[in-house]
Amino acid sequence: MTLDVNLLRQDFPILSREVRPGIPLVYLDSTATSQKPRPVLEAMEAFYRTNNANIHRGVHTLAEEATAMYEQAREKVAQFINAPSAEQIIFTRNATESINLVAYTWARANLKAGDRIILTEMEHHSNMVPWIMLATERGVELEFIPVTPDGLLDLDVYRTLLTRSPKLVAVSGMSNVLGTINPIAEIVRLAHAAGAITLVDGAQSVPHLPVDVQALGVDFLAFSAHKMLGPSGIGALYGRHDLLEKMPPFMGGGDMIKTVHLRSFAPNDIPHKYEAGTPAIAEAVGFGAAVDYLNKLGMQAVAAHEHEIVNYALDRLEEIPGVKVFGPTADKKGGVASFTLEGVHPHDIAQILDRDGVAIRAGHHCAQPLHEKFGITATARASFYVYSLPQEVDALVNGIYKVKEIFG
Amino acid sequence: MDDLYRELIIDHYKNPQFRGHLDPNDIHFEDDNPLCGDHIEVTLRVDGSGKVADGRFDGKGCAISQASADLLIESIIGKPVEDVKKLSKQDVLDLLGIELGPVRLKCALLSLKVLKAGVYGLGESSEALIE
Ligand SMILES: Cc1ncc(COP(=O)(O)O)c(C=O)c1O
Prior knowledge:
The complex is a heterodimer of chains A (408) and B (131). Chain A is of the alpha/beta class and 408 residues long.
């Protein structure tokens, strides 16, 4: 099955806007955030128009409807990643909060000075800084799976690091800079054999690839709705049932408790134990609609489409003299192309492209250590999603030629 | 030619007149914009009457950050250091002759920040210097 991209683009109102009069939008920044299809926008608006109420506490009709819609969204998200049960999905604000939740609860309850955590050099700051904070506070040791010059994880070094009994392996499913799709099933299998718990930063992999937590065997998986056609302000943490049962609560407040006395409380059952306060209810409904939309397209078809487009993008980019693309070959990566152009700072590239409506990102993309590793401060990044067209790659390439002309 | 990347900017980026490092110097300061890795170093010589006798900048970064540094140094040579202390954000924008969004403004104003921290003899630069 292939995507009918021209047809599905009609579901995304923003894609038909002009950036300036006569200049249509060419949106190549979906790795930062995706655009939202009409069913997501409509589900959220319908919720506010007809069902809005706080959840889990009212007995009136609207409260019951809202609670049912919120919990139904949790079911959808659980099924999307093949979680064994919906109570293993905790709604958070985003992938970053999901990772922090694990760092503040599981890690602080289980790790002590001298314990080791394995990360990778390609992590986004959100799967690095929470662990650096823990290392500083607790004296936990951080180790890093190196990234090879062609943008892959060095699994030989990983095997060696595993001989030192790490307690946690935290890796991204897909790099937001290199696009590298990491071999998560193998990484998890090796980690478990060494007795470590695993956390996968799925901020990029869940939106772009079929992800099955049971097949991968992963213990924790973090992701954000806004990168997968859903609204900002909501994300999810999947966790293994026994781990979620045992971990201490994260934030304290309403909803996360069973009973409260003046000097004590009993935490609620999972997942509510980790969801203090009024959550992003309309956003959860939108998240559910986004998952429905992706299911309708089929994640195999989504991945195949992105693969095709990134393949074409790499071919076209590599034919431009002075352009250097970072990361592995197209067969090992998702829809991300990060590059530099000799003699031109990525900011200048992005700004000149913006004049023609082409939206790309320039900077270190929250992966400063990875850029240091490659000896650069910044890259320009074009990224793709379900609605990306080959003509948009052509617009990018034409723009780069224009940059070259200006900087001649 | 794209109005945003006026010939002037590309010119000063590609063929800077004041790129380099003065040694010895009377004023030396450097700093960077961690967001994009732009880096600017400024060195100045001051004569007996308190005027800028010579100046150079060095560094790396986008066309706007480097061109604005070159234009800025050009504009202060021969001027009293006391006047340099009074330079504002608008002075740099006038030199560049373009409008900039908030992100690129940081690139454009890095050299002014560095220059002013230098002439004030401060240990570190701050946003307050360019307001
Ligand atoms: C690989 C990766 N991890 C984590 C994040 C953080 O996502 P969020 O900002 O939604 O928490 C991102 C977003 O850029 C990402 O690309």
